[in-house]
Amino acid sequence: MDTKVKIDTLRKLMKDRGWDAAVISGGDPHSDEYVPERWQARKWLSGFTGSAGDIVVTYGHAGLWTDGRYFIQASKELEGSGIEIHKTRIPGAIGIPEWLGMEASKKPGFKIGIDGLTVNSHDALEIIKNISPHGGSIDDAPDFITEIWHDRPEYPQAGAGILADKYAGRTRSEKLSWLRGKISEAGCGAMLLSSLDEIAWLLNIRGGDIAYNPLLLSYMVVTENRCMLFTESCKFSGNDLETLCKDGIEILPYDSIDHEIVLRAKEGGKMLIDGQTLNYHLYGNILQSFGHERVCDSLSPVPLEKAVKNKTEIKGMKKAALMDGIALTKFFIWLNGQMKLVKKGKTLISEADAAEKLNELRKSTGALDESFATISAYGKNAALPHYSAIKGKCSYLEPKGLYLVDSGGQYPYGTTDITRTIPLGPTSKREKRDYTLVLKGMISLALSVFPHGTAGTNIDALARNPLWQHRLDFGHGTGHGVGHRLCVHEGPQAIRHNWIDCPILPGMITSDEPGLYIEGEYGIRHENLLLCKEAGKNSCGEWLCFETVTYTYIDTSSVHKSLLSKDEIKWLNRYNSMVYSKLHSFLDKDERKWLEKRCRPI
Amino acid sequence: MDTKVKIDTLRKLMKDRGWDAAVISGGDPHSDEYVPERWQARKWLSGFTGSAGDIVVTYGHAGLWTDGRYFIQASKELEGSGIEIHKTRIPGAIGIPEWLGMEASKKPGFKIGIDGLTVNSHDALEIIKNISPHGGSIDDAPDFITEIWHDRPEYPQAGAGILADKYAGRTRSEKLSWLRGKISEAGCGAMLLSSLDEIAWLLNIRGGDIAYNPLLLSYMVVTENRCMLFTESCKFSGNDLETLCKDGIEILPYDSIDHEIVLRAKEGGKMLIDGQTLNYHLYGNILQSFGHERVCDSLSPVPLEKAVKNKTEIKGMKKAALMDGIALTKFFIWLNGQMKLVKKGKTLISEADAAEKLNELRKSTGALDESFATISAYGKNAALPHYSAIKGKCSYLEPKGLYLVDSGGQYPYGTTDITRTIPLGPTSKREKRDYTLVLKGMISLALSVFPHGTAGTNIDALARNPLWQHRLDFGHGTGHGVGHRLCVHEGPQAIRHNWIDCPILPGMITSDEPGLYIEGEYGIRHENLLLCKEAGKNSCGEWLCFETVTYTYIDTSSVHKSLLSKDEIKWLNRYNSMVYSKLHSFLDKDERKWLEKRCRPI
């Protein structure tokens, strides 16, 4: 079926159901960053492969709403499909709720079909807010797309297992007891959890249902004396099931969550939910079963508790960084050797080859998986915000200019995320200046000391200021939280220009990754992970600082030394020296010599 | 009457009116920073002279709610009064709304008497939110305090006048036409304004009803074709009345605003108000007269428009800074001479004497008034957050250590605010270090370049970072907006650690005033005003920067040069050189020589 036929089929379904419009979102029931194939209805319907966007179809119009990252890609992929692009995040943009509001104003009793499992409740309520003044309404139809998407993939079926206490540092019983305290503080008798990483962290379980993120497709309900995990028990081994059972975890079928909500409601008490992440279908069920007065919609306390790593988790994250450092060092040595061959015309190395090699080396140091798809970008490709090197279609590395590699690993004991920008040969004066300015920003944040209560937004400018002084900037956040053997992107803290209402707390691990992207020329990003630590107390307050927990040398051959302050030079030399002392015993003689040279003070 | 007797009298009044509690706020009907005597009921009732706090009296309790600035002062002033202190802005603090909520839960039909003129609507609604679930209610009783405060002062009666277009740069007709556009955009037929500085700015009028702030006690209603100013017409000269009349400004009695709201409501259309500043009495009247559906409670557009100065206003602000520079230079020369005499034991100079001298010199350069009460603080007094030197009770200056003077003037064409910290003789190593760190912070902000859309909160850390690196900080904002021949503190922009949702825009003038306060030892603050300007456009965005618009030398004798970067030294030398070149022609030969020496590069 081509897109036009699919849309016609969808319109027939709409007609049968009495809908004036249908929303096809790109989301899954758990607000995952990486959406399993089963829920990629947007891609199936339209052919658009971007990671953000929603489709609305009426009888007279079909539109894809997406943001600036995808304007060019979408216009290529949607050519001839009859789907029009609606640009979001631009001045004067009209979002889906407003657009549907206008449509609803034209026809009394306007009815919109939505798969409530694939839209979070806050987004659905925004639509309702816009259509209800005109008498419009939403019809929640879970999985309606299955009627027309005949070869729709099944639920992900990966196995799952227990994360040992020696890695988790805190037992599931301890975590559940903490959560029960929070549920009771909120005056509730139960809590429904639907965020997969919250569930995985609370129960010390890890799965493989989501790409890169070691998560298990599930819901969870916690009451004063019960803990129900809604998933398929066959995903676990018998031993793991026994362990979970001993800890009082009941496993119920994934699909029985709706029924359980109805049962819960009959038992009395209030239900705690987080409408920011909960899908609209379950939200609707809860509201109907419990009634407005018995639902407490509040920010889940789990993300903050999860973001503050315990000692064992920190130890694991540091060990992962060490293993990563070994893999990356070996990678850069390999790359260096390959570039010599390239120079002699004896081989060709593509961006995808390099990524593959790095992945291989990382696995040989114990990584179970990548923590996200490696960005391996040479020259002007590194200036593209979402570059992905595809074998056979990507660039070959040449012995000149800058190569950017942003990658990370999932180790049994922790998760990494690191970016290095490496000269493959001579670099221009401007490349050197920019390389140094970005480095200044990264170091400035790493060196920062700040009072308790400081949010990431408060210190974001420290990383940007060296660039700003040259009227340069980068269009992404400076830092995101990193999970422990979990999602490489996690909240609630972030270091960003827009306001993030969460302080940076001791134990949090956040990335420090300023960059600079010169279109058509080159891209630079330096990224380390920062562990927030206490830094003393005095009459001015309680102080916090960062410890860098990434152990991979920073290339100094492109550093423009006079642009660095004395403190920045000291930091850089100490950092590289620390890296050498941590890694050298894991390297052979030649590798050691190679690294020693690169870690020499400037 | 002593406080106890006054409270007994109040309780009698409460009984007569059937109230269970009465709230005595410290506010006036216009949310003014400096409250006229007529509305200082809190001071009259309790004897507490602080600038922040509210009193609640029930039959069993009398309490003053105030914050950390006043805990010590309040406990002294309230001794023996029977009024207890409730601490606010501390962890676990119970505010007035919550406290009244608890009281209301104990008695059905709990009734609270409030002078709605003295409480802004948002605060009153917060109380209602807390008491209404228990069946409690508010009784709005305007001016009820007059019944027991027999010698209550009258309304302020100062004269008012027109600010000439040559100073305002934009006529009142232009401003009103702009405002009418905004009212219409909001779908309203009229707007009620109650903020005195919004009214003064819109109509290009200035008054003298409020200390330091050249404002006129008034309300204002703007409709599509009428502009009504509610004040006493006898405050204006005949000429000014004629001018206002020609521009279509109708003057009605201050007290007739209530009646006018009722008339307005009968004419139909919606009313635009800003509940953040509007008092609860008028808010209640509007709600009753218009009905909920016909009231649009929204942030007033005036403060932002007012904060962005036009070319004429900027010219005036710069001229004021120049005159201020002359006054301050003469002041520091005088101080220098006096300290020589002090050293020889030939004279004594108190902090109050110094403030008086500065005020005198400022008047001789054309200032009409101070823009706030000068802070003249020597040695350890400068470490007190709200120090006020009282003649006969304050310290004498000695020829050693640091003297801090924070002051400003109201000139016909502009308003100033400046702080200098000056060594009166030898200073310690630590004083020099701290003097330099604070200076680094001030310079760092002055040198900042940032993209369009940046809020003050985003760049606040640039001023704090040099201190933070030494685990030092200051407990106040880094910068506030400054009005043009208006309030020295104005919004909506601010440079603060907490989030302020307003970008710094070209034309805004904001203070840059980091500080450091070492209790019992010394205090340091450096303050200049910064004009935000455009700084070019490129592929990374539209850039903004600051121009310093304060022209008074910065003493370099206490600078620890090696703590400053090359760029900071360059800024300092250029700044002092610029100050000299601007001021020298206004000084006599000796003064010039004195200043030239102090402006020499380091």
UniProtKB/TrEMBL annotation, chains A, B:
Keywords carried by this UniProt record: Aminopeptidase, Hydrolase, Metal-binding, Protease
Ranges for domain Peptidase M24: 316-534
| GO CC field | cytoplasm
* Sequence intervals crossing the membrane: none
Question: Which GO terms of the molecular function aspect are on file?
Answer: aminopeptidase activity; metal ion binding
What InterPro entries does the record point to? Creatin/AminoP/Spt16_N, Creatinase/aminopeptidase-like, Creatinase_N, Pept_M24, Peptidase_M24_C, X-Pro_aminopeptidase_P
What protein family is recorded?
Belongs to the peptidase M24B family.
Q: Which PANTHER family match?
A: XAA-PRO AMINOPEPTIDASE 1 (PTHR43763)
Q: What protein name applies here?
A: Aminopeptidase P family N-terminal domain-containing protein
